[in-house]
Design a protein that fits this description.
- There is one protein chain.
- This protein has 667 residues and is α/β, with parallel strands linked by helices.
- The chain folds into 4 domains: 49 residues, no CATH class; 106 residues, Beta Barrel (OB fold (Dihydrolipoamide Acetyltransferase, E2P)); 197 residues, Rossmann fold (3-Layer(aba) Sandwich); 156 residues, P-loop containing nucleotide triphosphate hydrolases (Rossmann fold).
- Helices cover 38% and strands 19% of the residues.
């Protein structure tokens, strides 16, 4: 049903919803709140920790004229709460100036407290005099256009009354496991009476989504056994000799992974293997050995990386290790002439190994005899993208890699009987990184110590957490950059964040690697694969806001050279829970053990977000639910398939929902 068919919702409001990609009532009821306001938890702004979220009842005194700073539009309002004065700041939302009028409000946003100057960053707000009826839990939706929270709440209530909520899970199982109806679940998410009702509703909706997804996975497992069409002629002795090109001896884990790949390539079926290993476990060396097996047998190979920084790094490594072969590079930043020359040579068979980014996936990129593909950091590529690469040849062997450990328990659910190889150990030469939790009172001491390390020729990362709003993210990292430059005037700082263009990111990282910068202030864009051997210090702000696995990935950016390396976890909220989590990281270096612990602590909703699963679970990304939901869904799917309960309807719904998975192998 179109939104315009809802009573009281006209074309103008429908256009505002369209900016949120909502055009139907079905899309509207699936636009879940990102959080809830507990009307009983209003706080004094003075009591809030820096960078924490807070619900503040206050008086709006005045609104300043909108100011421009380059492309940035900045709106400020003066607020008071008792004797305390503070400001609310919005970035690129000048239209709010027309909405904000003096009076009593509830503001909800991230508090920043710099030198006793308190600000709320991009807060949502409610007129208290107009919304005295707000009680209990009130949903807060992620808004990016000129539409108010109350308008979304009103429209959602109307949509809930007319929308239908059919379930894919067979009725017999819904009754057996006493599942609430989807209609009740959606109402419990958008109009909850209690926190427990909201939690039960989130778990029920997540269960439906995981059931459908896992059923789709089950239906495509048969695609795995595609017969081999290319015969590899490389010998085990030649592979062993290639391994000697590396400046280290392969670990048992690496040797086992190489053996698995060799057995695949010389077996009757094409390879479709996931190689996962902790940070520094040597996955790249294994992948390059697989590429050698292909080119030594006379075929072409491709190495796909998620960013130009990582692609350029891998290109240099390929050139070094494959001096007897023709290696080419293709990325978005390549000039038109370079792209044309590489594509022509590739199609003619004059390139043995192509290294690049998403540019490799373009329709006008043709291989003469592609046999082997490597996809680095597999969570950054969708299944369809990887399939596009493998289709550029006949029965292409595919190796996808991940340095983001997926808990073994989840691996059993999502990968099933697919070929998964794990490298459990690290090269002996890899440095252990000393990890410490740093409270506010020791911050200046830490900066002084880092100043000394930089004087010795070391380099450092300073990482900000990514926050809800893109503009807020940039502002946060830019403010930190300015503060650090004042605190450490002798240190040369670079700045990196997600809103820079790929070319700009590559230039900053290249300059950092050339030691034109002593330190890099960044968001988590530096998390994946960047190798800077002289970087020995990692500082992570508000570390309690990150998952353990992500903190472990960030920690893995240092300790890549011969010098002792350190990771400092700065904690804004020194709660018992936060300290317990960070101490787990401090005392654990096994990424897979941390991933399991992360799953236990954060639940499936936080752990399997868009980073882990791409667009597959994007509909439920704002829901909070326990990991047991995933295993319940697996159990229900198993029972459905074993007993053939409503099988055809389940099959149709699952494949229709995840149509892009029909003809691809899950990597």
């Amino acid at each position: 049903m179109k939104l315009t068919e809802l009573r009281g919702l006209g074309e103008k409001r429908a256009a505002a919803f369209a900016k949120l990609n909502i055009t139907t009532t079905s899309e509207l009821v699936r636009y879940f709140p990102r959080s809830y306001l507990d009307m009983t938890s209003r706080v004094s702004v003075r009591e809030v920790y820096h960078n924490d979220m807070a619900l503040v009842a206050c008086t709006l005194e005045s609104v300043e004229p909108v100011k421009s700073k380059g492309k940035l539009k900045i709106l400020r309002a003066l607020l008071t709460q008792g004797n305390d004065c503070f400001t609310a700041v919005w970035f690129n939302m000048p239209y709010l100036a027309k909405t904000l009028k003096p009076g009593e409000y509830l503001f909800y946003g991230r508090v920043q407290n710099y030198y006793d100057r308190i600000s709320l960053i991009n807060p949502t707000f409610e007129r208290l005099d107009a919304n005295a009826r707000l009680k209990g839990l009130v949903p807060v939706y992620p808004l990016k256009s000129g539409i108010a929270q109350w308008e979304v709440r009103s429209a959602v209530r109307s949509a809930l009354a007319v929308e239908e909520f059919p379930s894919v899970i067979p009725e017999e199982l819904r009754k057996k496991y006493n599942l609430i109806s989807l209609k009740d679940a959606f109402r419990g998410i958008h109009v909850p009476n209690t926190a427990s009702e909201m939690q039960e509703a989130a778990a029920r909706i997540a269960l439906e989504e995981y059931f459908t997804l896992i059923a789709a996975f089950r239906l495509i497992k048969g695609d795995k056994g595609e017969a081999r069409t290319k015969r590899y002629t490389v010998t085990e002795r030649e592979v062993a000799n290639f391994e000697k090109r590396f400046p280290f001896t392969f670990t048992k884990g690496q040797q086992g992974a190489v053996r698995a790949i060799y057995d695949d390539l010389t077996g009757p079926f094409r390879m479709n293997r996931l190689l996962q290993g902790d940070v520094g476990s040597g996955k790249t060396a294994v992948a390059l050995t697989g590429i050698f097996m292909a080119v030594k047998s006379g075929f072409q190979a491709a190495y796909l990386s998620p960013t130009e920084v990582l692609a350029a790094q891998n290109f240099a490594l390929l050139q070094k290790l494959f001096p007897d072969y023709r290696v080419a590079y293709l990325a978005g930043a390549s000039s038109a002439a370079e792209k044309k020359a590489v594509k022509l040579a590739l199609a003619r068979g004059e390139v043995d190994i192509l290294c690049g980014t998403h540019a490799v996936l373009q329709g006008d990129v043709y291989f003469s005899d592609l046999a082997f593909c490597v996809c680095d950091e597999q969570h950054r590529f969708g299944v369809a993208q990887r399939n596009t690469l493998s289709e550029k040849g006949e029965a292409v062997d595919v190796l996808v890699m991940s340095a983001t450990p997926i808990p073994r328990t989840l691996s059993l659910v999502f990968y099933g009987d697919l070929d998964v190889t794990t490298i459990p150990d690290k090269p002996k030469e890899r440095q252990e990184v000393s990890t410490a939790v740093i409270p506010d009172r020791k911050y200046e001491d830490m900066l002084g110590w880092i100043r000394g390390e930089v004087a010795k020729g070391r380099q450092a990362y300073f990482v900000c957490p990514k926050i809800e709003d893109d503009e807020g993210e940039v502002t946060s990292v830019t403010e930190l950059y300015d503060r650090l430059r004042k605190s450490l005037p002798t240190v040369r700082f670079g700045l990196l964040h997600g809103r820079l263009k790929e070319k700009e990111k590559a230039e900053v990282m290249a300059a950092f690697k050339r030691k034109e910068y002593d330190a890099l202030v960044s968001t988590t864009v530096i998390e994946v694969g960047v190798d800077v051997p002289d970087a020995t210090v990692m500082v992570i702000y508000n570390a309690e806001r990150f998952g353990l696995s992500q903190l472990h990935q960030l920690r893995g950016r240092v300790g890549r050279g011969s010098e002792k390396s350190y990771c400092f976890l700065l904690i804004g909220n020194e709660s018992e829970t936060a300290l317990e989590r960070l101490n787990i990281l401090k005392n654990t270096t096994d990424g897979f053990a941390l991933a399991e612990k992360d799953l236990q602590l954060r639940g499936g909703g936080d752990f399997l977000g868009t980073r882990q699963s791409g667009r597959l679970l994007s509909e439920i990304k704002n829901l909070k639910y326990g990991s047991e939901v995933i295993f319940t869904a697996k159990r229900l799917v198993d029972e459905t398939f074993e007993r053939r309960l409503n099988y055809e309807a389940v099959r149709t719904a699952a494949l229709q929902k995840y149509e892009s998975l029909k003809d691809v192998v899950l990597n």
